[in-house]
Amino acid sequence: xxxxxxxxxxxxxxxxxxxxxxxxxxxxxxxxxxxxxxxxxxxxxxxxxxxxxxxxxxxxxxxxxxxxxxxxxxxxxxxxxxxxxxxxxxxxxxxxxxxxxxxxxxxxxxxxxxxxxxxxxxxxxxxxxxxxxxxxxxxxxxxxxxxxxxxxxxxxxxxxxxxxxxxxxxxxxxxxxxxxxxxxxxxxxxxxxxxxxxxxxxxxxxxxxxxxxxxxxxxxxxxxxxxxxxxxxxxxxxxxxxxxxxxxxxxxxxxxxxxxxxxxxxxxxxxxxxxxxxxxxxxxxxxxxxxxxxxxxxxxxxxxxxxxxxxxxxxxxxxxxxxxxxxxxxxxxxxxxxxxxxxxxxxxxxxxxxxxxxxxxxxxxxxxxxxxxxxxxxxxxxxxxxxxxxxxxxxxxxxxxxxxxxxxxxxxxxxxxxxxxxxxxxxxxxxxxxxxxxxxxxxxxxxxxxx
Length: 451
Known about the structure:
By secondary structure, the chain is α/β, with parallel strands linked by helices. Among the domains are: about 5-90 and about 110-165, Rossmann fold (3-Layer(aba) Sandwich); about 175-285, no CATH class. About 45% of the residues lie in helices and about 15% in strands. The protein has helices at about 10-25, 40-55, 70-75, 90-100, 120-135, 150-160, 175-180, 215-220, 225-230, 230-235, 245-255, 260-265, 275-280, 290-310, 315-320, 330-340, 385-410, 410-420, 425-440, 445-450, and strands spanning about 5, 30-35, 60-65, 80, 140-145, 165, 190-195, 200-205, 210, 255-260, 345-350, 365-370, 375. Helix 1 (about 10-25) runs parallel beside helix 2. The mean pLDDT is about 95.
């Protein structure tokens, strides 16, 4: 019997996605799923919904709950980390502090929570603690990270955690949105992607064996303007795969970006103010005043909806979560390891020579073969030079800065890293920002760490 432990199970939507995919995967029949969270109220909600779901779909899964992390790890074969410490509690306050010092929409993970950076301390500290517990309690288990920042998080765990670490994100699957817009059938396409999490690129694109990049060029020339004027595009700030930003990044760097790449590593001049954001992204994009507000409201609406489902025992859970597998690689990864049936997945794994010019211990997002023997990386080779020099190398350097600041508790390094932000005019400006952020009551632990 396989034991799968979900740490941060109070995230009800994510927990139910995992339960649904496991329920629909026959090779994992009989598995034990341990839901763990320190928030008992949210944990009970996830547990109740999970029990009702597996009963409705007649799945053979054993569900248990606990607030004790060590109990959840005991005997685990797979540990899923879905934790976001403190959620979004202080995000808007810190964003306002950043703006008061001249940083529109804040800094680091207060601009995009994918980045890590200043407040990544909480996440990285938890990730390492969890991995070190695993190395003692379930040393042979797989550590599966879905919590952000995936790039920094999986790299720090791989280097210092003492466990087998894999990062999982569905952002690279945005190439399917590209195929839909281009009106080409996925079965006729060969795709390869390469990069870092939320900095990933379409490194190979073949249609019926021939280079398919001309299809993108044709769409840009003939159809893009109508698409950008459509309701389908305009009303969806998170619909950035075929945005003006994505097309402009393709023009600048010669390779098409995928998923949240346009959000996380697009040029700074896309983000100087709301009007500029609206030029490049639908309704300003996910991190604009418009897009982020919409996200927070949708999050609240979804939570309220699930609470009503939870409080009504007669409600069919399959109406809220139809029995259809998600596109997430999480459960397929577990299935391939357990069943020994090989699959090709896109995961965040140690580079080990897959992308030329990067160290082996940097985690890259690439296609891999997964089976009972473990993971075999697909060879990517050389990333196009403009992408590597102007985007990936700065992103790699940023990751190394974040990890060095975190590992050493180095406030000066924290300041120097933020000083590279294009909005920084003087050293005194960025030092005042860091001092102000660290002086907040909720950052007392950070202040102690970054001495």
